[in-house]
Amino acid sequence: MKPTTKGTDTRNQSVDKKMVDKVNQQMATEEDSLMAKIIGFGLILLGAAFIVLAVVVVVLSRRTAEIDESLEVPTLKANLYTNEEVTAVEGTTSPDGEVMFFIDGEESDVVATADSDGEFSAELTLPNEEGVYDIQAATVEGFPLRNRSKKSDISSITLDKTAPSAEAEFDYDPISQDGKFDLSGTVDPNAIVRLSAPDGVEYYTSANEDGKFNFEQIKLNAKDTEYNVTLVDEAGNERELALKLEVSYPAFVEPIASGDVNGDGVVDDADGDLNGDGVTTGDGTVAGVTDTPDLPEAAGELDAAMDILGGNTLMLILGLIAVAVFSLNSGVVAVKLGSKR
């Protein structure tokens, strides 16, 4: 008899299959690894290409723009004086156009876009040094290769961070005879002079190029008034002077009582509120006017007053008649009761 090999063959086939599967798996893994390396290398090349492209775009965008005389030259408006490095500018150009800016001839990084009406605005940062700076604008188009229009007219901005000088001269009469006073003097050229009264009222005037200024007929609202003086320069810097202006008005008469003044010279109600320029007596009434809440509120309404007084008299007469009738009836009843007894 021949020996049986079926079981051995089956085991051999199983081992062979495992080896084949292992080899196939190893080959697949190697192929996946190779594909992954190829994809990774491709992504690296693509990233490098994007970086190179970005560098090229940046370089080209920073290239000095070529002048295209067909582009509209923008108009530019800026503050003449400022006390801050960041200053606002505005102007007009072609609708939806882009605008670049120049500070003392050097191109700024700021770019503004105009609206559909061609109006634009921007904030420019000036060097952190006081001085005069020339601002210009130009319409720009194209990216990364840019073309621009000619520059606009120069708008000069003065950066000034220094407060006005404390040295000032004032000329005024410290005693007023009519409740008003005039004030003149000398301060920094073109400065604004602000007077502040204790009641919150403020007065303004501007000095001329020589620093001369003048206030006329400032009204006094108290017997003694002390004014604070503040100087404001064209850039907006302020300085409050230590000097106080003291003015006296000896003839000033303090109001006896306060009230709501409406201008018709009589009381609104019984609490003594004035409607005009009358003077309260201190007890809730007005001198020469009865404290009657039913009186008309406007002086001179004689007809209305007579109507009210006439109506009151009629009521009084009717009341007296009613009392008399009641008394008569009471007497008659008493007589009848007495006769029955």
Automatic annotation (TrEMBL):
Residues 174-238 form the Bacterial Ig domain. InterPro entries: Big_6, Ig-like_fold. It comes from the Bacteria. The chain crosses the membrane at residues 38-60, 314-335. Pfam families: Big_6 (PF17936). Keywords: Membrane, Transmembrane, Transmembrane helix. This is Bacterial Ig domain-containing protein. It comes from Candidatus Dojkabacteria bacterium. The lineage of its organism: Bacteria, Candidatus Dojkabacteria.
